[in-house]
Design brief:
The protein is α+β, with helices and mostly antiparallel strands and 118 residues long. Helix content is 52%, strand content 17%. The strands form 2 sheets. Strands 2-5-4 form a 3-stranded mixed beta sheet. Strand 4 (101-106) and strand 5 (110-115) form a beta hairpin.
């Protein structure tokens, strides 16, 4: 499975799009979830609340996160099979890591999204 995944990844260019002229990669593209900045933010918010980490998430911090992701061109992608195997906690960790986003939970259980500190 790891060899097949490595082979499939080789057919994708850096932007997560399928390389032209590669029929195998074109088929693999249908098996990939692509996240735009708003989808990344929605996923993070959903999983923070779903996992009981926060009761809600600051709307201002969500908007700032979307703007940061748009300005830096962050558009993560993941194979659907890999996504399906992840738990909700793992999906949250993946979204945070791929978007270079951190979070803090403040008094009242409101989460604030921030740029991750490297």
């Amino acid at each position: 499975m790891a060899r097949q995944l490595k082979s499939d990844v080789a057919g994708l260019n850096a932007g997560g799009r399928v390389a032209a002229g590669n029929d195998a990669a074109a088929g693999a593209a249908a098996d990939v979830f692509y996240f735009d900045p708003a989808a990344v933010a929605r996923g993070i918010v959903f999983h923070l609340i779903d996992e009981g980490i926060a009761a809600d998430v600051s709307a201002d911090s969500v908007h700032r996160t979307i703007e940061r992701l748009e300005s830096t061109g962050v558009r993560p992608s993941v194979y659907k099979g890999l996504w399906a195997e992840m738990s909700h906690r793992e999906r949250l960790a993946w979204l945070l890591a791929e978007s270079h986003t951190g979070h803090a939970v403040l008094f009242g259980r409101t989460a604030v999204l921030t740029a991750a500190q490297n």
